[in-house]
Structures are given as C-alpha cells and as structure tokens.
Amino acid sequence: MRRVFRIAQSAGTTLRKRDDGGRKKRDVEGRKATPAGFVAAAVSMAVLLALAFVCGCGKTDDQEAPSSKAEKPAGGLPEELVNHMETAPGPGVTVVASAEKPAEVLPADFVNYTESIEGLDGTVVPFEMIAVPGDTFTMGSPDSEKGRKKDEGPQHEVTVGPFWIGKVEVTWDEYEAFAYPYRPKGAPWMEKYVDGVTRPTMPWGDSYRNFGRDGKPVIGMSWYGAMVYCRWLSRRTGKMYRLPTEAEWEYACRAGAEGTYCFGDDASKLGEYAWHTDNAENSTHDVATKKPNAWGIYDMHGNVSEWCLDWYGSTHFGSVPSGKWPKDPQGPESGKNHVVRGGSWKSNADQVRSARRNRSSDWWLKLDPQEPKSHWWLVPTDNIGFRVVRPLHGEEPPFPAMSNGL
Known about the structure:
Helix content is 24%, strand content 15%. It is α+β, with helices and mostly antiparallel strands. The protein has 2 domains: 2-80, no CATH class; 113-391, paralog of FGE (formylglycine-generating enzyme). The strands form 4 sheets. A 4-stranded antiparallel sheet has the order 3-4-7-12. The N and C termini lie far apart (75 Å). 32% of the residues are buried.
C-alpha cells in the first residue's frame, strides 16, 4: 500500500508540474487559470483508486488474500512462462507429456539399455531393452478395419505407464540359460546356480522343431513356462521382468500409429516388416531381420506369436464403461486361456494386424503324448514365443500356480 501511495504521489507531482506550465501559458493568453492543487489532488486520487483496484487492495475480508508468489517485478516475465520455468526438469531428464494429464518426469536413466545373462557353457548372452514412455492411446480396431474380429472392440482409450520392452523376442540362447543352466564339472554349481526358481523338464521331441536354434526365437513353451522364465530373469538380474500386458503389447506394437499395422494400412508393405505365411516358407526366422517399427522394436508382426500376461475375455473390451478404464489394465480377473498377440509365420495378413487378438486353446494339450501333460511345453505350438517387459512402476505379478500351461 505504501508503494501505491508513493506511485500516486509521484504521479500527482508530475501532473502539478504540467498544470503549472499550462497555467502560466494560459495567464499569458489572458485566460483564467485552473487551480493546480485541485487538479493534482483529483488526478492523484484517481490514480490511487485505479492502482488499488489492480493490486487487489480493495478486496473484502472474505476474499482470498493475494499470494506473494503472484507478485512479479515490474517488467518481468509473463506468469505462465515463470511458472513453466519454476517446474522445468533439469538437464538429462525425459518428460512424457499428454494434453489430458500433467507431464510425467522420467528419470535420466530411462533409456534403452543392454542386459546380459550367463548362457550355456559360460557364454555371455546379451539382449536389448527399448524404453517406451507411457501415454494414452486408442486400443482395439474400428468396425471398418479389414479382417476385424468382434473381440477387438469396441475401441477404447487406455493409459499405460512407462516401461521397457524387449527389442526382439526371447531367443533360444536366453531361454536355455534358464531351462538347462551351465553346470561346470567339479564346480560348486549347486551354490552358484540354484536360485529358488523351478525349471522346465525336458521337452518331448525336438525342441527346435527343425527350425534351427542360433538367432531364432524360442518356441513351444507354455504360458506358465514363460512366466517362470520372467521370474528367474528377475532373480538373476535384480530387475523386475514380466510378460507384457495386452495393453502394453498393443501400445508398443503400434508405436504411435493408428492404422492396421505399425506402418499404416497398406498390406502390400507387410513383407518389409513381418515374417508371415506369404514369405516365411513354413519356418521361424532369425529375429530382427525385418524392419522395426517407429520405436525400434522388431517382429511385433509375425515370426512368432507372443504370450501376454492377461487372461483372455472375448467381451472384455465392452465390459468397462467408456472413460472408466483403469491405468495399466491387466485384463479379466480370471479365465481359462491367456492372450496371444502378433501372429506368426503361419499367419496371413489379417492375422498379424496390430489389434488382432488370439488366445491359447485346449487342443494344444491333446497332442502331448506324455502323461501327465507337461506344464512347460505345448507340443503343437511351434509358432508361439514371447518377449519380456520391465515396467518403470508397479509390482511383480504373483508367482503363477502350477497350471496346465494355457
């Protein structure tokens, strides 16, 4: 308030000087002068009232007092810019922004990285993880999409948090480090290698299905086998790995695209990105030999279909009211079969679409000649594999109960 009076006083002085000059001129011209004090006082009072109104000094007792933070130096930056500067992240920090929610500031180490585990014969097996910032996207397919199935709708907005996802599918090198660990003769391997996680029994028949091993995606394991591998990998590396949720999988597959495939709607380009029935020649192929999507993730279309964490529900997409989907949804609470995504070398163009859903099937167990049926391997699934994710937030899923693997 003192500042307001000083400003008003200064303004009045200036105006008095101007009025004195004008009075002298008018006297010379023979006109009647206006009293300077009266004019100056009137102008000063007007300035005082205007400044009091602008500064909020005239607020009543039931109004909120002006915040000291809102007071800015004369000639300073606009309030919006100052607020932005006060909350801006430091250097080396990644920010994920959305028009519908405040930006999430991610740690500086939320970047792509390479993990390594010890493989067979003591070799080092590396695998790469791609950092995927979370956001909101449209999940499912529109009614007009060619090849669409009823269980792909209705389309709905889903928000997923940030996570890392395998650049490629889990390979035989990685899975066999878990399934058949290296046990050097004469070494105390029981102390070094046993980590409290169960491992698969030997599969019936040829694990590789005559497709080869080196560079190829692992195939034929059950959902249970994939889940236990993730638990083992978490124990071995000290980082929490798991299967992707169905929402995370589709979000990573689309990589920001809204069309039929990660590259758009033109199926004639599919051969550049996917091994499928038209070009696979009845076999899996080495990972990362086709083009990646916009985020650098390979083989999301074709080569091998991929297990997801969720139970499958044919009507699940329509069971949640619009706008009520929770962040990071994980599918139905229970079920009989689990979700499989992406299509494989056996699939046609419609079956490898970004929104295409599939599930495990009871008949996958019937061809197993063993009794009891294996919990780890599914004999007919020479086109089923998986990849891992590592969420930035969240807890490890419960250890799966021994199941039929579906």
